[in-house]
Specification:
single chain; 97 residues; alpha/beta; 4-stranded parallel sheet; globular
């Protein structure tokens, strides 16, 4: 069984990124980040924390449904049995861990 976590990022504060990735790592085999054109160092920091990082070179519309399409496709390509997503400011409830 392969559990893949996807994280949507955009100009994510460092503490939020650390917390969101740690939360996904607590339940997932792989953590993927999908950045929609951050103008700060979010992508660089994500590369140090996540297994794979996909980054847009320019800011894209902040449309959550569209941004989630690529993570689902990538998880399927990797053979994920389960796929979970977080926004960059979310984490699992401690009762789910």
């Amino acid at each position: 069984m392969l559990i893949v976590g996807g994280l949507c990022t955009h100009n994510t504060p460092e503490q939020d990124l650390l917390r969101a990735v740690a939360s996904l790592r607590s339940a997932c085999d792989l953590v993927l980040a999908f950045d929609d054109g951050s103008e700060d160092d979010t992508v660089k920091r994500a590369r140090g924390l996540c297994d794979l990082v996909f980054a847009s070179k320019k800011p894209e519309p902040r449309l959550p449904c569209l941004r989630r399409a690529m993570p689902y496709a990538e998880a399927e390509r990797l053979g994920a049995t389960w796929f979970v997503t977080h926004d960059d400011d979310e984490e699992f409830s401690p009762t789910l861990k």
